[in-house]
Amino acid sequence: MPDVIPDNSVGLVSPETYQFDEPLTLRSGKVLPSYELVVETYGRLNADRSNAILICHALSGDHHAAGYHHEADRKAGWWDECIGPGKPIDTDLFYVVSLNNLGGCAGSTGPRSVNPQTGKIYGPDFPVVTVRDWVNSQVRLADRLGIRKWAAVIGGSLGGMQVLRWAISYPERLGHAIAIATAPKLSAQNIAFNEVARQSITSDPNFHEGRYLEHNTSPKKGLMLARMVGHITYLSENALRSKFGKNTDEQLPGSSNFGRDLKTGKLSFAFNIDFQVESYLHYQGERFSENFDANTYLLMTKALDYFDPSVDYDGDLSKAFAHSHCRFFLMSFSTDWRFPPERSRELVENLLSAGCQVSYLEIDADQGHDAFLLPIPRYMEAFRRYLLRVHEELSA
Amino acid sequence: MPDVIPDNSVGLVSPETYQFDEPLTLRSGKVLPSYELVVETYGRLNADRSNAILICHALSGDHHAAGYHHEADRKAGWWDECIGPGKPIDTDLFYVVSLNNLGGCAGSTGPRSVNPQTGKIYGPDFPVVTVRDWVNSQVRLADRLGIRKWAAVIGGSLGGMQVLRWAISYPERLGHAIAIATAPKLSAQNIAFNEVARQSITSDPNFHEGRYLEHNTSPKKGLMLARMVGHITYLSENALRSKFGKNTDEQLPGSSNFGRDLKTGKLSFAFNIDFQVESYLHYQGERFSENFDANTYLLMTKALDYFDPSVDYDGDLSKAFAHSHCRFFLMSFSTDWRFPPERSRELVENLLSAGCQVSYLEIDADQGHDAFLLPIPRYMEAFRRYLLRVHEELSA
To answer: Would A6 be classed as within a structural domain?
Structure first.
């Protein structure tokens, strides 16, 4: 935590755990006999329970979206830029609910949990979960919280896919669907990168077919490689260049090449790190591999690969939204090559064909897919104004 | 070999080995005491030795650029589409020289060779070689073959970097520099992908710090992963989609999603292969890992990372070409995101600033970086016409 909590922070927050004892049948046909969801909430639920917003997290996210867990906590939640008093998702106006999804590794039931039927840790036996399964578990959470209809369901990337699934499967239970930097299904290239990530993990000798915890180890190197691949795809070439390179126009003698001459001023002529972009990726990958669970990473990538709501509608995406009542707000970022603007435009076209109300904003930003996590002024402003209008509707 | 050799094939070819006993000082300061280069030639050298063309290969290429090695050979050389009688690099007109570069694994001195100073296999002790070192070794080959001046030096990708180095370091020794799908230096993203590939290889438990041959093994899994990453970056999203997916416009019911429903018509709900793009990448990666040397892969990626001729010229690329006499012909491909057209345009601008004669063609092609290996009509035709003019100049 910073020395003084900023006025626009939700401050100190504590996660709560909700136990669900009714079995949940998954899309695979497997059944979770019972499960727990870890949840954080920010702001206050109003008297008619109409001001609740659900936040859906992406691949490596969790329930801790805003604020600080304790006094010594240096880092705020993953979407702290967007959630707080006066921020786009304004906690003075809305009651914000954020959970860790099933299969996660931050407290909700997942591969690190004990399987009640065997008394052992699930590990690789945790069933494959899909976006639909998550949304089904989120519906039960809404029921538990007494929220009949979300003012909005909001998410970016894989979180945006959950938003779309809400609009398709539970049209009467949300007022607005806000899906950011997302896609109606992955591209072949996305799937290919995910498969490289999975292969990196499963071919690490410490993976032990997913039973690494039983061996008191972890496939850190494989997870690090998976994260490195992912990280390259989250950032744009522009973002990498502005972090590590010089534009040819601005090149200073000897300072080109992304941090070449790292320390000694010379190339290693060995297979050491020569460029800052390499050490940056190593650092990011290593830090991630210390905290994240490898089996969860596998599950999250499969959930991404499997998402394709058109499959149940003869491949016609617009039919998937035929019964959606909510209003849609989509945003995408110009340099996002993982979920590029054209994928959002594809969504817009299909939503319009389905007769849905949709607002769409394409934001110029240099930061690639990561932009959805960053306080880019035009993004923040549009996001804030849209949700102000949502709030005005509630009060009207 | 096909049952009947096509008329426009160079037919059966045999590599030759040239031994060089004069030590070669490398850019790293290390010295190769002696080395061998494996070479193939196609066509006939004319009386005044003016019709020779040098082919420079890319990351995974070698000397076998055209024709067949033996009757049972089903696959022609890697650039057979471009080299042969009546083809763009017409062997009825030109004498074509193609070599395996130092550090390679197809016969020239490299990590699999015996170090004459120790009597042991080089393995990881083979020195890091740069594009400049390769060109220096190619100059000696030219001397040995009695070729004072190449009619043209030609290469794509990493091969194109060698072409640029020839034009900078040996301006009087080539008439034309033909650089295809290349760049004046790598982007931060390119370097990042290369580092992921290197980490994949070196973290394979069978790598044994590069001494895998001594352990009678090979880091196949790591090399496979490296190739999978590479392969994704060589192909465009369009190429992947047309191989494995359907355009949304053309979607047939149930047939979307890149070969989902691979065999059984169902998703696996496990970490198996679900999509054709995954099995394709596995197949490509595995095939590659059976033939290619992991230490060579490491060397090739470092040669790519280190290439930046502007470094010796205060970061001003145009100064690098100030003494180049040759004419330049550059081509790039619209969907190549590894070496995109803008990198070629950057080269064109710098060549023009340097006062060089340069022709540049940007070709619409769906195949990404791989396009430079494929018989795309507009590409083939432009290539053929340019070299016809080169030949006419020689006869004039």
So the answer is: no
Answer yes or no: are the C-beta atoms of B301 and B338 closer than 8 Å.
no
Q: What is the pLDDT of residues A190-202, one digit of tens each?
A: 999 999 999 999 9
Is the residue at B297 inside a domain?
no
pLDDT in tens, A338-388: 999 999 999 999 999 999 999 999 999 999 999 999 999 999 999 999 999
The model's pTM is 0.93
Write the pLDDT tens digit of every residue in B329-380. Answer: 999 999 999 999 999 999 999 999 999 999 999 999 999 999 999 999 999 9
Domain that holds residue B76: 16-185+307-395
Q: Which of B134, B229, B240 is nearest to B190 (CA)?
A: B229
Structure tokens at B306: 């280190």
Gap from B175 CA to chain A (nearest CA, Å): 28
Q: Are residues B20 and B152 in the same domain?
A: yes
**Residue A8 belongs to a domain:** no
Classify residue B25: in a domain, yes or no: yes
**Domains: count for chain A:** 2
Same domain flag for B239 and B330: no
Helix (H, G, I), strand (E, B) or coil at B270: coil
Considering the domain architecture, whether residues B220 and B249 belong to the same structural domain is answered as yes
Helices (H), chain B: 131-145, 158-169, 188-202, 220-234, 237-244, 276-291, 294-306, 317-320, 341-353, 377-395
pLDDT surpasses 60 at A161: yes
Candidate list B157, B218, B236, B324, residue with the active-site label: B157
Contacts A316 to B, Cβ<8 Å: 251
Q: Are residues A72 and A200 in the same domain?
A: no
Taking the CA of residue B323 and the nearest CA in chain A, the distance in Å comes to: 20
Domain boundary among A239, A257, A291: A291
- Indicate if B233 and B312 belong to the same structural domain: no
A48 is catalytic: no
Q: What separation in angstroms does the CA of A93 have from each of A15, A50, A78, A390, A393?
A: 21, 11, 20, 10, 12
State the CB neighbour count (10 A cutoff) for residue B190: 23
